[in-house]
Amino acid sequence: MKEQASRADVDDAAHGESLPGDGFHYPGYIPNEGAAGDKTGELREFKHKLLRINATGGPGNRDPESALLAQMTTPDGMAKVVESGLGGEVFEDPLHGSVFRFALEYWDEHEIVPSLQVLIDEFPGLILKPPRDDDGATGWLIERLAHRRSTNRLQNLMRAAVETMHADPLKAAAEMRRACAQILEEAPRPGDSGIYVDVGAMLDDALPEPPRPEILSRSDGVPLFYPGEVNLLFGDPEHGKTWVALAACAEALNSGQRVLVADLDHNGAAATLHRLLQLGAPKEALRDGDLFRLCEPDGTGDVEHLIGDCATWSPNVVVVDSTGELLPMFDANSDSADDFTRAYNRVLQPLANTGAAVLLIDHLAKNKESRQLGPMGSMAKRRAVGGLCMRVVRERPFAPGDGGAARLLVNKDRHGGVRAHAQTSRGGGDEQLIGTFLLDRENDGTSSWRVTPPQSDSAATAEHTEFRPTALMERASQVIEQNPGKLTRNGIAEQTGGRKRTALSAVDLLAREGYLTSTEERYPRYTSTKPYRQVDDPCSDHYPSGNDHRDQISASDDDL
Questions:
Q1: pLDDT tens digits, one per residue of 341-356
Q2: Model confidence over 517-529: pLDDT tens digits?
Q3: 54 belongs to a structural domain
Q4: How far is C-alpha 91 from the geometric centre of its chain's CA atoms?
Q5: Are 268 and 171 within one domain?
Q6: CATH number for the domain including 45?
Q7: Are 411 and 433 in contact (CB under 8 A)?
Q8: CA distances from 16 to 23, 25, 26, 187 (A)
Q9: How far is CA 309 from CA 114, 127, 262, in A?
Q10: b or e along 34-71 (b: 16 or more beta carbons within 10 Å of the residue's beta carbon)?
Q11: Same domain membership, residue 193 and residue 161
Q12: Domain of 485: which CATH number?
């Protein structure tokens, strides 16, 4: 004898209470006896297979409808909504449905996302809070609203089935099975929102190749920077970071690719254009607003507008110069991991999401230990970078009319596509030499540049540097030891004596090899970190092992 529900159970069910043995309820459900009761059990079993929807949890307790509308005021949020195919029918509030349709029409017409203020001005009385910085928030909200709509449709279906159950239970069960199957087919499955990777599809189609660098090629054809990633160039002031980044821009423009330079440091449009022309960027490309754009953002509004433009314009290379100006603009502290991550997710990652190789320029810290690790400030910088993290070390000053040279070292390469073509650097350690950036002044007054691979690095730089002046290096070291933090490069050379050009080269060698630190000024002042003495230098005639060991060192360098 099948257990029957009591009248009290039925009354409870009518008010939304659960029936015995049932984890789900709906108002007005009354079980039938006999055959109808059997069909009721079948319906219950079918229902439990359908309703596996979690309506709790998630990012905060905000109204999901208004929260999703706020996310649609960001390029990434709008892109996820459009990609999901979500419709206005998921909104229960008619006002929210109207705002949703307006936002999509605004996106289609203007090719930029509407701001919060645009929506509020268009719909008086609308209350929206700022969008979340969390990358997963939009996907979660899309999935929640879609699941809520599926739940409502199923509940309505069951209510309708109850009304027809007494007349023809078999027909009601068949109709419900068909309608439920359709709802399940249309309902999003966990992971449809993009939160989870569709591993099965990836395995079916064979795993994609790992990201490969494509921007700024060495003379042997090996590229250095990754598209669709943030790449970081760091080093001391005037060591050639911007030159290297702009060389990547010139190369891209010569290939017909799109380039954006965001000059937050306000180096000046004239100076930037002059450098690009020196590096061989074609004038016709610089004139073409569809190929080249240069901006000097003054605030967060300019930066956000820039990000919105890039979402539709899709540049190949984006230079952001520099972190030192970007972070304060967003009230972020360079030493705070949370602050940097917030600015990174708000600005840099959206730019990389357009497919561009983002070249972010940064500086070194003053602290000796920190300088050895990477860029100044929080370690979150190095951790967040998905492309190449490159240290730029000046070999020869970049002087007007005289060119310059800088060694390029791999500090971090998450995908390994660059490090595979690098060699151990002179200083050893964890960083490898990827090549040397050379800027040459030609006889006709023009400039040329190239990035030489490691095996030809010594030969290439030898054309541009004096012999190793170990005697002047020792004298310069002694001058700095006696005047810590007081003398500029020229001041040290004057007190060192000898030919000034050779003395300046001696100072540069000491700085490059870690004997000196410098202040972050236009004309930096130097302090000794350790004394240099010829007797400790294997490349010096005064080294105890003599010339044979020095020759071995030279041969080793030539092999790089």
A1: 899 999 999 999 999 9
A2: 888 777 889 999 9
A3: yes
A4: 33
A5: no
A6: 1.10.860.10
A7: no
A8: 12, 6, 6, 25
A9: 12, 26, 13
A10: eebeebbeebbeebeebbebeeeebeeebebbbbbbbb
A11: yes
A12: 1.10.10.10
Last residue of a domain, one of 391, 422, 441: 391
Structure tokens at 530: 């350790």
Same domain, 197 and 220: no
Task: Indicate if the pLDDT at residue 470 is higher than 80.
Answer: yes
Could you tell me the residue range of the domain that residue 185 belongs to? 32-207
Burial of residue 135 (number of CB atoms within 10 Å: 0-12, 13-18, 19+): middle
pTM above 0.70, yes or no: no
Sign of the C-alpha dihedral, residues 58, 61, 66, 70? Answer: negative
97-101, 103-107, 479-483, 542-546: segment of lowest average pLDDT: 542-546
Output the six-digit token pair for 114.
Answer: 């509407």
By the 8 A CB rule, do 472 and 502 touch? Answer: yes
Q: Are 10 and 16 in contact (CB under 8 A)?
A: no
Same domain, 271 and 369: yes
Token code pair at residue 325: 């100006």
- Tokens describing residue 215: 């921007």
**Residue at which a domain ends, from 157, 189, 207:** 207
At 17-76, the pLDDT tens digits run 333 333 333 333 333 334 444 545 554 444 443 433 333 333 333 488 999 999 999 988
Please count the CA atoms within 13 angstroms of the CA of 192 that sit on its side-chain side: 17
For residue 162 the two structure tokens come to 């109850």
Q: Are residues 84 and 222 in the same domain?
A: no
Same domain, 232 and 84: no
346: CATH: 3.40.50.300
